[in-house]
Structure formats: C-alpha cells, structure tokens
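User: Predict CbiX/SirB N-terminal domain-containing protein's structure from this.
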Amino acid sequence: MKKQALILFAHGARAASWAEPFQRLQQLIQENSPELKVELAFLELMQPPLPEVVSNLVDQGYEALTITPIFLGQGGHLLRDLPLMVDELRQRYPDLQIKQVAAAGEDAGVLLAIRDYCLGSINP
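Assistant:
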C-alpha cells in the first residue's frame, strides 16, 4: 500500500487569524484518521506554499497525495492556478501519484451542512 497524505489547500490571507479554521479542520481530520498524514498548504500570502508541502512529503517517503481545495467554488485559482501548479509538481515528481479534487463547496454534503448552519442562524 502506498504511503498517502492529504493536503488541504486554501487561498491564504494577510491576517494570521484567517488560517485558524483551516488549522482546526486539519486537526479534526488528523484526529479522525491518525494513520493519514494531513497537511495544510496555501496558494498565496501564507506559509507553507503547496510546492514546499509536496517537497517535504516526498522527502518523507509519501507516494500518493490528494489535494483537497478548501474553497467554496471553482473560481480562477482552482480552474487555472492550481492545475498549473499540479502539472509542475507532476513533472518534478513523475513517480508521485497526485490526485486533485473539486472545491469543498462543490460537494453536496458540504452545501447541506452550510445550509443547515445558515438556517440555524435564524433561530439559534
């Protein structure tokens, strides 16, 4: 079985506090699946960037990575920027299996959870 890791990919922001929900999500996933390596990477403005995270995972012997964008929709960053980054990573690491999935907000279950949160905010 290949050594697998999950990379949560987020945009990034200038305010350090912006990353806190993503760090909590990373921790929740890691606690739920302790056998899985879970990393957080950012597109811009925050560290670490995706190429650095991938390089570190390759150095640790990981052979299969799943990149999960924690975005609500498939905007320009996910339609253009991320595929270019993934293509470059595949060229740099030809033996590495890299899977890129759709934005978290494209998943029906995520949308239902957000719906429930929004409806719950009316009458808390």
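The chain has one domain: 4-120.
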